[in-house]
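Could you help me review a protein record that somebody else here produced? Do not assume that whoever made the record got everything right. The record follows directly below this note.
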Amino acid sequence: MRQNLENKTALITGGSKGIGYGIAAALVAEGMHVAITSRSLAAAQEAANELNKIGKGKAIAIEADVRDYTSQEDAVNQVLDEWGSLDLLVANAGIGHFAPIEDLTLAQWHETIDTNLTGVFYSIKASIEALKASQGLFVSISSLAGTNFFAQGSAYNASKFGVTGFTQAAMLDLRKYGIRCTTIMPGSVATYFNNHTPNEKDAWKIQIEDLGQMVVDLMQMHPRTLPSKIEVRPSMPA
């Protein structure tokens, strides 16, 4: 039997656009209440306003930076103050800097690792007690770049290999509390990542609503079963 998601709650980092927004929209459509974070409160609020037009669950905007642990604690506390529980954490916020290793700057390296990897650690660390209480689900958004390396991808590969390994280890640590941990590893997705603007030529790519449906499916699955690592590819790449 699929689980009823109405009035369950979620926190999605980097939820103002792209994959995070697609996940939020799918959850709100199922009746979940969703908090989306962004470093820009205006961007998060604009997205929350659109999500609230869907008509089932409620969305709120939170200004937060995954590179700051206190900021993540504050975000979790805002969810608990608003709804009293946290059933799902989606660690989605991420960036990409791509350059040959001799050209990659120290600032680009640190921003990539601090956002994509340390940010995931901060997000789950701040949420553990709330997820213990709800026996909830933790989803990290990794990438196929978290298992396949490529030229000019040293920082991004390192961060996503790290997210994949971190989430699998966290799964082993946390399942004794009833917390399920899954990492989703998409290939090409039609998003705004790396200064791209989605357009009609992206029809062959994974769409954000596809990943949203995947998280809904994970939430509705019986808790006895855990897809711990999911690789996702376009069916027919260009």
Notes: The chain has a mean pLDDT of 95.
